[in-house]
């Protein structure tokens, strides 16, 4: 009588598994935390509240829970965790698991020793369990570690908490018998490995197949993504399917855009749990600082907007006039996303109206600190772009606080001039987790040429541009913190040209009449600059335009001036290659040159006629803009094609996935039927393969000593038939 009973138990146990998976999926779907939200910020669940299904369509909340037992995870895993002594979750586990169990990509950072290992082992086991992964499915997850020792530790954790799951796991690390690994590697569901060893298998092991990979994990991701492993990681990732879940964990946030692009992360959840960072800025906020020379700021902003046409972007500029100019000019260039602006002159009602529109649809809002103050972006925005450096750290926090509200994720980017790098230190001192990065200039689209054409065409834009220029320079001049803001280091001619202005406007307070007082050609050594900085501190009178102040500013600018021939020498001596210096001679030439004939040099140093790049194509002024329209249309079409392409790809992927699932189901059905038909079948049966497929946990550990691995292969905790039956019965009785 025993055998029929065991068959029945097996069928029931399978049904129980299917039911459990269905329940878990519904439960997870029901309580999915908002993308970008931090479960840590939710109040903890009451200790005695029910867990799992509450009634027909209601399930218990798991975002915000504190115990592993409250999570929507399988009973197998709950048992494994409990037996390994894990009860309460650590912060990184609480913050990341509700997201990762819902299938999201994760970028998690928490101090060493904070429990990151379980934060990725749990979702790996559950993902495969819910997919009913079996030996025949091959490699379902790869967990990469930078060192053998760490890989070994991870393997240990996996074995202990995953012992009730039926997965095979392999440890692929250097220093062991490679050939023996080769024999097993294709039968492993979970591979824990170092990048070098994995790549070796990918390259040389016949039939090594990762095409069904479900989850990729990088532990100590910052180390794996750094230069040492770059080649290996690139080669590995290029062979993995893009449609997968990716989990990155490290002690520091690794958010370099390039790294993420390499790993094809999809809207990852940024999870940082260190106390200090939570205190200063929301931890769902990804904060980047990039170095942008003043004359490339608009190019960078334009390129940024063009690259984020589906977002809500809040752009901060220093002055009202800049806001108006950039808004007007960019509007005429039609980036393909609605542009709006908020400035101090607007009535509150209008501001609210604009704000409302901004929150409701993808668009770009240009604003100053003053006009945005007091307005609450209750839904948060996707991006805060600080084109101009904030006055101080408090203003920085205020600005980025506009994004990443409680229920949303946010990103921010701050453009800093080379002379403003001190601001980065200030932010870091205040424990604000900013990431400094060099911008990707490959995709930088230049707009200064287009702006020059616009300014020539729309006459009323020119005064706007001039005022934008003047007010910006003045705002820097008026800044109190001279360690960060140094008007003398602004490349003002280049800046003016970058706004499309044919010549640099006169700055009233930069009186140039005494310009020749300076010793011609005297080089300025770097140490002189800080010494002179003191001069431009505003006087207590606060009247910044006082004659004496002007003199001092002038003095400073002049100190870098040279006669023509010494220009290069002086700049070299200055060691500030991005800083161009006002020259008297240049001003004279500019004064007599008609508007719109700025001299441009080509790559060989020959002068080109005004707007040569566009004139090249032999168009008139209006033709220019037609050409531009055509280009825009092309760009739009390209975008459109891209989206369609993407849709097609998705569809194709979906179809292939459905096909795969069908095949798998067919296989499993056949297997189940075979099992049901075969009364004599049991685990001691002759079919060795099906034995492995069905019940056992095969752990292959290449670390174990030389003797035959097959022995070591079934290394851990195989549950006997009797134990299985007992477990299934327990499971069944617990369901009633
Ligand atoms: P990290 O990877 O962040 O450095 P680990 O995952 O190695 O941290 O965990 C550090 C230690 O904390 C390990 O000994 C681990 O067993 C223990 N640990 C992890 N999570 C928990 C938990 N929820 N409860 C108790 N101990 C835990
Ligand atoms: Mg770790």
Automatic annotation (TrEMBL):
Record's catalysed reaction(s): ATP + H2O = ADP + phosphate + H(+)
Domain Helicase ATP-binding, chain residue ranges per copy: 97-271
EC number(s) given by UniProt: 3.6.4.13
GO BP term (any one): rRNA processing
SMART domains according to UniProt: DEXDc, DUF4217, HELICc
Pfam families assigned to the protein according to its UniProt record, in alphabetical order: CTE_SPB4, DEAD, Helicase_C
Domain Helicase C-terminal: 293-448
Family matches, as InterPro entries: DEAD/DEAH_box_helicase_dom, Helicase_ATP-bd, Helicase_C-like, P-loop_NTPase, RNA-helicase_DEAD-box_CS, RNA_helicase_DEAD_Q_motif, SPB4-like_CTE
Composition-biased stretches (Basic and acidic residues): 660-672
GO MF entries: ATP binding; hydrolase activity; RNA binding; RNA helicase activity
CDD domains, per database record: DEADc_DDX10 (cd17941), SF2_C_DEAD (cd18787)
Record flagged with keyword DNA-binding: no
Q motif, short sequence motif: residues: 66-94
Classification via PROSITE patterns: DEAD_ATP_HELICASE (PS00039), HELICASE_ATP_BIND_1 (PS51192), HELICASE_CTER (PS51194), Q_MOTIF (PS51195)
GO CC terms, sorted: nucleus
Record function comment: RNA helicase.
Record remark on domains: The Q motif is unique to and characteristic of the DEAD box family of RNA helicases and controls ATP binding and hydrolysis.
UniProt-recorded name of the protein: ATP-dependent RNA helicase
Provenance organism: Helianthus annuus (Common sunflower)
